[in-house]
C-alpha cells in the first residue's frame, strides 16, 4: 500500500511520516495542494492523508478535484478545523474520514488500517500470495476439464455490483466510487427493493463506534445518487424519510 501525506508543516509531517513508515507502508510526502494533485494523477496512491491549511490550494478544493478526476482511493482529512460544519463539508466533497488536530498517531493509524481494509481489492494479489497448483500429466483416459462458467451478466444497461472485486458497473462502464460509496451501494444492493435503515448503514459502513454526525451518510448517499444519475443507471436511490434508504430498479418507470 502506498500513502501520500499532504502537509506543509514540517514539524507535523516528520513524525507522521515516520509513524506511517513504521507500519510498513510506502509513503510520499508533498507540501502543496498542486503537488498532491499531480502525485495522485500520476497513479499508484492508495490513500491520501490531507491537511486542509495548505499554502496554495485549500485542502477542501484538493479533495474535490481528486474526486472529480476519478480518484477512488481513501482520503483522510487532518485539520485544526474541528467544527461539525467543517467535518460535514469535508465529507461532502469526498473525504472518507476526518481527524481534528491534535490527534493520536495510534488512532490515525487505526483509521488508516480500517479504511485500507475496506478499500482493498482482494483480487490484487502477488504470486507469493497464492500457491501454484501442482501440474498434472495428461493421460489417454484424462477427461478434458469443462470450461469455467462465466460470471452472471447484468441486465443490459443495468447495475452490477461485485463485492469480491469491490467494483460496480452500469452496463460496461465502471462507476468511480470511493470506499464508503461502494460500501453503501453494496449494502443497499444486497437488499435491493427493501429499506435499509440509517442505523444499519452507519454501523456496517462506519462501524458501531462512530459517534460523529450522520450527515456524513447523507453526503455519501448524495454523491452516490449523483454518480448513478450521471451514468444513466436504471436505478433509483430513494430516501425514506425518518427511516433510511432504498435502492430499486427504475426500468419500469413511465
Automatic annotation (TrEMBL):
GO terms for cellular component: cytosol; protein-DNA complex
Domain of life: Bacteria
SMART domains: REC, Trans_reg_C
UniProt keyword Phosphoprotein present: yes
GO biological process, one term: regulation of DNA-templated transcription
Alphabetic keyword roster: DNA-binding, Phosphoprotein, Two-component regulatory system
Region annotated Disordered, chain positions: 126-157
Keyword Nuclease: no
GO molecular function: phosphorelay response regulator activity; transcription cis-regulatory region binding
Bias kind Low complexity: ranges: 131-156
Pfam families (UniProt xref): Response_reg, Trans_reg_C
InterPro entries in the record: CheY-like_superfamily, OmpR/PhoB-type_DNA-bd, Sig_transdc_resp-reg_C-effctor, Sig_transdc_resp-reg_receiver, WalR-like, WH-like_DNA-bd_sf
Protein name (record): Putative two-component system response regulator
Protein species of origin: Nocardioides simplex
Amino acid at each position: 500500500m502506498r500513502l501520500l501525506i499532504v502537509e506543509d508543516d514540517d514539524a507535523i509531517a516528520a513524525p507522521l511520516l515516520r509513524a506511517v513508515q513504521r507500519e510498513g507502508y510506502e509513503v510520499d510526502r508533498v507540501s502543496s495542494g498542486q503537488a498532491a494533485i499531480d502525485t495522485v494523477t500520476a497513479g499508484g496512491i492508495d490513500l491520501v492523508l490531507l491537511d486542509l491549511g495548505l499554502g496554495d490550494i485549500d485542502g477542501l478544493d484538493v479533495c474535490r478535484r481528486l474526486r472529480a478526476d476519478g480518484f477512488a482511493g481513501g482520503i483522510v482529512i487532518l485539520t485544526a478545523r474541528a467544527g461539525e460544519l467543517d467535518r460535514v463539508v469535508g465529507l461532502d466533497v469526498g473525504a472518507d474520514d476526518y481527524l481534528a488536530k491534535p490527534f493520536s498517531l495510534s488512532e490515525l493509524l487505526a483509521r488508516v488500517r480500517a479504511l485500507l481494509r475496506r478499500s482493498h481489492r482482494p483480487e490484487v494479489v502477488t504470486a507469493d500470495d497464492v500457491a501454484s497448483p501442482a501440474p498434472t500429466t495428461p493421460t489417454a483416459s484424462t477427461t478434458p476439464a469443462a470450461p469455467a462458467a462465466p460470471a452472471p451478466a447484468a441486465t443490459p444497461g443495468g447495475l452490477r455490483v461485485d463485492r469480491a472485486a469491490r467494483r460496480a458497473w452500469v452496463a460496461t462502464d465502471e462507476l468511480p466510487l470511493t470506499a464508503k460509496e461502494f460500501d453503501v451501494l453494496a449494502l443497499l444492493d444486497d437488499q435491493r427493493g427493501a429499506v435499509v435503515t440509517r442505523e444499519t448503514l452507519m454501523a456496517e459502513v462506519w462501524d458501531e463506534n462512530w459517534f460523529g454526525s450522520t450527515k456524513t451518510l447523507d453526503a455519501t448517499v448524495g454523491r452516490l445518487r449523483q454518480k448513478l444519475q450521471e451514468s444513466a443507471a436504471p436505478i433509483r436511490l430513494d430516501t425514506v424519510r425518518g427511516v433510511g434508504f432504498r435502492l430499486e430498479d427504475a426500468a419500469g418507470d413511465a
